[in-house]
Design a protein that fits this description.
By secondary structure, this protein is an all-alpha fold. The protein has one domain. It is built from 2 helices and no strands. Keywords: Signal.
Length: 78
Amino acid sequence: MSDPHHRGKRRTGARTAALALSTVLIAAAPAPFASAAPAVDAATAHASAFVDPFIGSANGGTTFPGATAPHGMIAWSP
């Protein structure tokens, strides 16, 4: 009869080898979409073109440039 402790070591070694092999194969495989550049249309390429930095600068500037909690619980001004 075989020693049960020896059989467990053999299984552990086989599992370790299988895990190492699968890790190497996954790491070495090229990603299918790694070389493809993401498509960017011209409208979103320069999103800063849609920002108006002069909002609230005329007629006293009645806008608040910060975020406030609901129901006016907090509204710190700069």
